[in-house]
Structure formats: C-alpha cells, structure tokens
Amino acid sequence: MNKDRVVIRQIQHNEADHLLDASTRYMESLYHAESNHLVDVEVLLQPRNYFLGAFVEERTVGCVALIAKSSYAEIKRLFVMESHRRAKIGLRLMQEIESLASQNHIRLLRLETGIRQPTSIQLYESLGYQHVGPFGEYQADPLSIFMEKSLSPV
Questions:
Q1: What is the C-alpha separation between 129 and 147, in angstroms, rounded?
Q2: Which residues, at least 6 apart from 20, have a Cβ–Cβ distance to it below 8 Å?
Q3: How far apart are CA 50 and CA 52, in angstroms?
Q4: Would the pLDDT of 85 be above 70?
Q5: Per-residue pLDDT for 154 more than 80?
Q6: Phi first, then psi: what are they for 126, rounded to 5°?
Q7: I need a surface site. Which of 30, 75, 83, 85 has the fewest CB within 10 A?
Q8: Domain containing residue 109: CATH number
Q9: How many domains would you assign to the chain?
C-alpha cells in the first residue's frame, strides 16, 4: 500500500463505528470485562477531545483518540484494521495525536494498555512512553500496563 494514500483527519459522526466494534470484540477476546477500559464514541467526539482516523480511499482503517483531563491527556482506542497494520498506520496516528497535543499545550500523555498486546507496547515504548503506575480512576490490575510521556513545547 502506498502510504501517501493514507489521510489522517478528525473523525466525523459514525465514520469509525466499524473500527470501534472490531476493537471492542478484540479487547473482549483478550481480557475479562473488569480489565477492559473502553470509551464510547460519544466521549471520543466531545469538543475538548480529538478523535483521529486514518483513511484509505475514504474508508477508515485506523483510529486513535486523545481525551482531555485536568493535568494531562489520555490516549484511548488506538486500533488499526489487521489488513493495514504493516503500513505503520498506528505509528502515524500516534505521531499525529502527539503533534495535536503539543499544539494544544498538553505536556503529559498517559495511556493504559494490556499485557496481551505486545505490538502495542512495543509501539509505545519506541515512541518514548515510560512505564508508570495506575493514574486517574484506574486501579492496579495485573493485566494492565500504564505508560506516560512528557511532551516538549512546540
């Protein structure tokens, strides 16, 4: 796939419903309900948040969200269709969401992921995310990994 054909932009309305459904099914296959911390599309589309999609020929093939908190922002719902994972779309989505955070004076990004997602963990570590303890409303969970990254001012 030609990576230049991938357009990353804000998701509108229900453009990512199929991705969120696939992501939810995937997470439910890996973890029991108490260890799944999914966010609904209504939250993702709130005005203070960013919900980005990667589009190939007008079809959403990946997504990621940035949820504004008081002293940081949380990355949620990173998901790329399996057929497009080799195209480094997850990396491009993460780079774009970090850029948006910096432009909006967000200096700390946090995320929660699961121990059964080594590819995601490797991606986050390659981008400089450090392992930390639970934050916000999260509780310690042997199936969860918590990470954060400080951003430099633009």
A1: 6
A2: 41, 63, 77, 79
A3: 6
A4: yes
A5: no
A6: -65, -25
A7: 83
A8: 3.40.630.30
A9: 1
Give residue 56's domain range. Answer: 3-150
| Beta carbons within 8 Å of 92's beta carbon, 6+ residues apart | 3, 6, 8, 54
Task: Copy the structure tokens of residue 46.
Answer: 């709130």
CB proximity list for 133: less than 8 A, separation 6 or greater: 140, 146
**Would you say 30 and 116 are in contact if contact means Cβ atoms under 8 Å apart?**
yes
- Cβ 73 vs Cβ 106: under 8 Å: yes
- pLDDT of 144 reads 96
Handedness of CA 76, 84, 47, 45 (dihedral sign): negative
Q: What is the DSSP string of the chain?
A: --GGGEEEEE--TTTTHHHHHHHHHHHHHHS-GGG-----HHHHTSTTSEEEEEEETTEEEEEEEEEE-SS-EEEEEEEE-GGGGGGTHHHHHHHHHHHHHHHTT--EEEEEEETT-HHHHHHHHHTT-EEE---TT----TTEEEEEEEPPP-
Cβ atoms of 74 and 110 closer than 8 Å: yes
Query: How many whole angstroms from its chain centre is CA 99?
Result: 14
